[in-house]
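Duplicate of #3305? Posting structure anyway:
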């Protein structure tokens, strides 16, 4: 727009001058008597051009200020986002540490729950002589202690345990026929019991209710018994 206005002014000035050419092609400028008049006419236009030029400069300055403000806002938003990310990272790290501490507490609690297994013969055992439980509760308790109900493998293992047992107590072991009558399995392995040492007349499944095995009396022979009855029990460690 400024270029157009300036072009108009130049054309007007050119028309305000006349010229002739002499024989030697020398340019002779004649002063046109309307010069003063023309300048007076063009003066408002020149002033308008100056005003427009100032406005363009002001507009450019405002655009520069607005752009700077927008950049400042973007920078502030980025800084705020970085602060949030830093806070979230710290919270995540704190949560990880809390989880680690909780896991340590759980492991400590589990260790405290585990009973001290005693080496007897070739294995490690815990003999419960103070608390009576049902067969199912005894299975669960031995697992909580880090072991399983006693799985007798042979006569030598039983003979090593007998001196540690109370002669008037009965003890649950892991043998049962809960799946099929007279098919006695080890709860630990799910396979048929490797060693059976029945009392005379046993197993008899009295009243069709006896499906779990305990042992008591002289020689601690085996007897099928009601699984819900409460007796003492023997746990065996998984670790040798």
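Output from current build:
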């Amino acid at each position: 727009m400024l270029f157009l206005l300036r072009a108009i002014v130049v054309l007007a000035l050119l028309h305000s001058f006349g010229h002739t050419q002499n024989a030697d092609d020398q340019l002779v400028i004649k002063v046109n008597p309307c010069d003063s008049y023309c300048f007076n006419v063009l003066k408002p236009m020149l002033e308008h051009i100056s005003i427009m030029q100032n406005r363009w400069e002001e507009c450019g300055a405002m655009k520069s200020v607005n752009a700077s403000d927008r950049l400042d806002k973007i920078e502030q938003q980025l800084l705020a986002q970085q602060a949030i990310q830093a806070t979230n990272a710290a919270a995540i790290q704190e949560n990880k540490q809390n989880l680690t501490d909780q896991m340590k507490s759980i492991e400590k609690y589990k260790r405290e729950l585990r009973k001290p297994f005693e080496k007897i013969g070739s294995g490690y055992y815990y003999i419960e002589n103070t608390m009576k439980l049902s067969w199912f509760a005894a299975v669960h308790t031995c697992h909580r202690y880090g072991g399983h109900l006693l799985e007798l493998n042979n006569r030598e293992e039983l003979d090593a345990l007998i001196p540690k047992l109370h002669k008037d107590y009965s003890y649950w072991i892991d043998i049962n026929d809960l799946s099929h009558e007279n098919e006695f399995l080890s709860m630990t392995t799910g396979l048929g019991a490797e060693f059976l040492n029945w009392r005379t007349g046993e197993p008899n499944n009295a009243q069709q209710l006896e499906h779990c095995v305990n042992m008591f009396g002289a020689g601690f022979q085996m007897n099928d018994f009601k699984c819900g009855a409460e007796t003492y029990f023997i746990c065996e460690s998984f670790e040798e």
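Confirmed duplicate; merging threads. Helices lie at 2-15, 35-113, 135-144, 155-161. The mean pLDDT is 84.
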